[in-house]
Amino acid sequence: MSKRDYYEILGVAKNVTEADLKKAFKRLAMKYHPDRNPDNKQAEEKFKEAKEAYDILSDPQKRSAYDQFGHAGVDPSAGMGGGAAGFGGASFADIFGDVFGDIFGAGGGRGRSRAQRGADLQYNLELSLEEAVQGSKVDIRFPSHVPCDECGGSGARKGTSATTCTTCGGMGQVRMQQGFFSLQQTCPRCHGAGKMITDPCLKCHGQGKMQKAKTLSVKIPAGVDSGDRVRVSGEGEAGEQGGSTGDLYVLINVREHPIFKRDGNDLFCEVPVSMFTASLGGEFEVPTLEGRVKLKIPAETQSGKLFRLRGKGVRSARSSGAGDLLCRVTVETPINLSKKQKEQLAAIEKELHDEGVQHSPQTASWLGNVKKFFEDMKF
Fold this sequence. Notes:
Blueprint: H1 6-10, H2 18-32, H3 41-57, H4 60-69, H5 92-104, E1 121-127, H6 129-134, E2 136-147, E3 163-164, E4 173-178, E5 181-186, E6 195-196, E7 209-220, E8 229-232, E9 248-254, E10 261-263, E11 266-274, H7 275-280, E12 282-288, E13 291-297, E14 306-309, E15 325-332, H8 339-354, H9 361-377
Parallel strand pairs: 1-9, 11-15
Antiparallel strand pairs: 2-7, 3-6, 4-5, 8-9, 10-11, 12-13, 14-15
Helix pairs in contact: 2-3, 2-5
């Protein structure tokens, strides 16, 4: 009976990468391994077939020979054995640990690097509204762990190096077998490093890193708002065992402004006007973040009226268009009046009152609602 094509057995294309080839074999091994299929001859044969195919294709020289000459170009007997004990030492527990080691980075005790990326840091930065809207460049100072300059981050005294952990044999993990299942744990002696430092660096005490105050100049993009974060790559904590450095995140908090309140890309401000300007109309200057602009108040403007100045708001860091400036008019009642001024206002008030409520539209509406309320409630 002729043998099936090795690529077909594993369900991969001829240009498959080494990583995808390994994943394909593990997928089949997890499904057909005899440890998971006791007394199932068909599953055992499928596993042996997949193991043979993987042994050939995972070896660059054998794969090249197989690609040129097919089964005649390779000798698969070196990679085969009889029964579950002869599958190249690949127990189900080994495959289980290796698969999940690939997924979660545990390493499965296969001697992979245990380099750990350094932690990310966060710096809280307070800005004025003007700095946030226009963008700025600020110098910040913060504590961080950096690689020890004495040992170069190894943790061992200069001129020495770490030794292989005697508990885990350098794997960084220890395995406990209980029946069908295998439990893999971080080595309690080396804490997963796979190495032990017997002669630690005197400067960092074997840690490989030390705390140091860092000063950075950070560019804050225009248009940021409270809650935004600016990422500064590679300026976080130093990694371990040669791992990469973490990042620094600058968290923005914009201080309250005495004039403006921000809502997204729009700015709001309260504009107090006198009762005379509100009644007769007028024009005066209002501030914007770009300078002064003229705001026209038409006659008979009521308190609470909102005026919109297009494009005078904020240009967000995430959009190209600028928001608007919304000015809310607050009609101000005069205080500290002289006796004469009070008499004059009283005379005006009496004259208006005698003419009815035509000069007070809100009062007229309110009185109408009150009258209806009393009638409905039968007071």
